[in-house]
Write a structure and sequence with these properties.
It holds the Pfam family KH_1. The chain contains 15 helices and 37 strands. It is an alpha+beta fold. Strands 1, 11, 12, 13, 14, 22, 23, 24, 25 and 26 form a ten-stranded mixed β-sheet that branches. The relative contact order is 0.08.
């Protein structure tokens, strides 16, 4: 299929609107740059807001506006990773709403904010130079949202625009390897859309965010898709990268106008060359022996490397007593990383003995625990994941917060995947937090992988729980595989099985041009150490036909498009191989759900019975749900949906409903006839009466007691147990309540009175009633 592209002006005719007038006002110098994407215009401005920050930028698309600020301290904090914190915040005021919690203010962080923060972090972290260990905080504040354009892409574009602060000599821009641009790509009816609106995304089969660097390099990819063909997906990536270059050129032009000077950090932390060379002489052969001993597993390999580390670091300290602890540690790390990477680059061997494209041993089991609605165990090497499926009522679906609803239009969802990573999975001791950023991110990726195959009309809310029991790389993709198996075991009619795999990269930079890759090896199904010491974690999941999700985390300043295309192709081949193994365990969903699974039935309740079914103030419904555990929701005027967690609970609920709604003497009541009623209770608003012994008491309102206005039934001398005459006017057509009146009988008109009491001969089972005629 040949796709149409709504791409705006080609790169050769870049339409960049640069507002570079030197306007000085109370805010200082304000600069603005704009990029046209066809009918859409992306604007980046700086110099007006948040001028005390090291950097600040305001990015706008349509009427959606995000302010990005950055502060980087000059005091270093040496560690094993770049101390970067990214926080994205969406305020209720931006959408014209007030928070619904008891304090009516933003409390905590929502799942959408955490996932967006991770997205931004993954885009900008690779661009910091190695050894830049200065605390850096990037805050993205949603100022306004129009409900049409998503703000997440704007926040990414603002992150490298923060160098336009008032004090440019304090900015972080200059320590970056390069600039950054990001766009969202959608695919609607065969047409690729750049930065599509929310309405367009609702019918798009691709939701792709690409962050690109200069020279058409890829820094980050985050994508969900609906079983999209590989060639279409690759085309979408190319379109996205092409349009990131427009943004990058605009920002670079703005930087030239602003005359941003290069900032030199006080110190880039690295080990001295002579210390690294000494560590290489001491440890390279020992490390090589460990990495080429293919009998090691994760634990034994780590123990062996740590033993060599301790010996080497001790000798380094003896020779360099003045060395900082970080320099000693980094010297060994550099040698260990160098040996590991050379093994792959030069000998095409991996530390577990596999070749570059081989999968680890995979085993699958389904129906692990009989009481569960669905369960599966997926084992890939030393990564083991247990997945379970739970069904519940549609009322159990996730209700999104009001801002996420305003942004995406999704009010609730009836499919969720929760990822858990306990510390024992890596032989550690730690807190059971339950919901940290990493667990949320991995769970969201696995959920994206499975959501496209879930039937949209499934009558239950589905929760997949993925618990990582062992971890040695790619646990999120193992969760997608295990979740697919568990869904089929639960009898969910998914359209196709889903599998995922992680692809890694070992590359060698060009000595003359460090930003270019001279040589590289792409690895299939990476181990945890290959992720840690490698240059890329490229996760892809989908069906035999197409791609459902892709997430690329890059640890170098950028990947050429050619390499990204190769990674997609290599992942697709591995995905199909994994699906073939999974199909040997369970090839299609069960024809029927398990017998102990939940049940949903519709119950028809006539309007005349509705008040009795619901009970006073909903009493009967609450009692039914408390006693049987069912959930009841109204479908239409006469139909209620009953969800029961087990067939036994449904049987109990049916007996309860039958008892409440069983036919009784009421069918003999005649419209317009007068009956003798017994007062059962005196209330402020009226009296509760019964027309016959086994009926539920009904309210006779004060307004229907007498022609005179009364505030309390005692004004008429009414008492409990007293018998009064009332006239029956049938049922209210809207709520089914019985309509009776005593007031209309206060006139002299003669009426037929039908007395129903325990003293009379009434056969309640057969409906026979003996009545006498009297005068009112």
């Amino acid at each position: 299929m040949r796709h149409l592209l709504r791409l705006g002006p080609p790169l050769a005719r870049l339409n960049v609107r640069l507002c570079h007038q030197s306007v000085w006002n109370s805010h200082g110098t304000i600069r603005k740059v704009g990029v046209d994407f066809g009918e859409k215009k992306l604007e980046i401005s700086t110099g007006k807001l948040a001028r005390f920050a090291d950097g600040s930028a305001v990015v706008q698309l349509g009427d959606t506006t995000v302010m990005v600020t950055a502060v980087s301290k000059s005091k270093p904090s040496p560690s094993q990773f770049m101390p970067l914190v990214v926080d994205y915040r969406q305020k209720a005021a931006a959408a014209g709403r007030i928070p619904t919690n008891h304090l009516r203010r933003e409390l905590g962080t929502t799942e959408n904010e955490i996932l967006t923060s991770r997205l931004i972090d993954r885009a900008i972290r690779p661009l910091f130079p190695a050894g830049y260990f200065y605390d850096t905080q990037v805050l993205c504040n949603l100022l306004a949202v129009d409900g049409v354009n998503d703000p997440d892409v704007l926040a990414i574009n603002g992150d490298l625009s923060f160098f336009f602060a008032q004090h440019v000599d304090l900015t972080i821009w200059s320590v970056f390897h390069g600039c950054l641009g990001a766009v969202r790509i959608g695919l609607v009816n065969g047409e690729f859309l750049v930065n599509p609106t929310r309405k367009e995304m609702a019918s798009s089969t691709i939701n792709l965010i690409v962050a690109g660097a200069p020279l058409s390099q890829v820094v980050m990819i985050e994508a969900s898709a609906e079983n999209v063909l590989q060639q279409d997906f690759c085309h979408a990536v190319k379109v996205g990268v092409k349009h990131t270059q427009q943004i990058i050129l605009a920002i670079q032009q703005m930087a030239r106008e602003a005359k941003v000077s290069k900032r030199t950090p006080p110190k880039i932390f690295s080990a001295p060359l002579e210390m690294i060379e000494f560590a290489r002489q001491l440890a390279s052969e020992k490390v090589y022996a460990v990495f080429t001993d293919f009998t090691h597993d994760k634990i034994s390999r780590d123990d062996a490397i740590n033993k060599v580390r301790l010996e080497t670091e001790e000798q380094i300290k003896e020779k360099y007593p003045q060395a900082e602890p970080y320099e000693v540690m980094e010297s060994f790390n550099m040698v260990s990383k160098e040996v590991f990477r050379n093994l792959v680059l030069n000998e095409y061997r991996r530390c577990d003995g596999r070749d570059l494209t081989s999968l680890r041993n995979i085993s699958c089991e389904a129906d692990i625990f009989k009481p569960l609605h669905g369960s599966a165990l997926f084992q890939r090497g030393q990564t083991q994941v247990l997945c379970s499926v739970t069904f519940d009522s549609l009322e159990s679906s996730i209700k999104t917060d009001i801002i996420t609803t305003a942004l995406s239009g999704v009010k609730d969802k009836n499919f969720m995947l929760h990822y858990e990573f306990p510390p024992y999975a890596t032989n550690e001791i730690g807190k059971m937090s339950g919901m940290n950023r990493r667990e949320l991110g991995h769970g969201a990726l696995a959920e994206k992988s499975l959501r496209p195959v879930i039937p949209k009309d499934f009558p239950f809310t589905i929760r997949v729980t993925s618990e990582v029991l062992e971890s040695n790389g790619s646990s999120s993709m193992a969760s997608a595989c295990g979740g697919s198996l568990a869904l089929m075991d639960a009898g969910v009619p998914i359209s196709s099985a889903v599998a995922g795999v992680a692809i890694g990269l070992i590359s060698k930079a060009n000595p003359e041009k460090p930003s270019e890759i001279q040589d590289y090896r792409i690895l299939t199904d990476i181990l945890g150490i290959e992720d840690y010491l490698g240059d890329m974690d490229f996760k892809l999941a989908g069906t035999n036909k197409g791609i459902n999700a892709l997430q690329a985390d890059v640890k170098i300043p950028g990947l050429p498009l050619k390499l990204v295309m190769e990674a997609i192709q290599q992942a697709t081949v591995a995905k199909r191989e994994i699906l073939g193994i999974m199909n040997k365990t369970i090839a299609k969903p069960r024809d029927k759900r398990k017998e102990n699974g939940p049940v949903v039935e519709n119950v028809r309740v006539p309007v005349s019975r509705r008040a009795r079914f619901v009970g006073p103030g909903g009493y009967n419904l609450r009692r039914l749900q408390a006693q049987t555990g069912v959930t009841i929701s109204q479908v239409d005027e006469e139909t209620f949906s009953v969800f029961a967690p087990t067939p036994g609970a449904m049987n109990e609920a049916q007996e309860f409903i039958t008892e409440i709604c069983k036919d009784d003497q009421e069918q003999l009541l005649e419209f317009g006839a007068v009956y003798t009623a017994t007062i059962m209770e005196i209330r402020d608003i009226g009296v509760m009466v019964k027309l016959y012994p086994n009926m539920s008491a009904v309210l006779l309102h004060n307004s229907q007691l007498d022609h005179k206005r009364i505030k309390h039934p005692s004004a008429l001398g009414l008492e409990v147990g007293q018998q009064i005459q009332v006239k029956y006017f049938g049922r209210d057509p809207t709520d089914g309540r019985m309509r009776i009146s005593r007031k209309v009988l206060q006139s002299p008109a003669a009426t037929v009175v039908k007395t129903l009491s325990e003293k009379q001969s009434i056969s309640m089972g057969t409906g026979n009633v003996q009545a006498t005629s009297t005068s009112s």
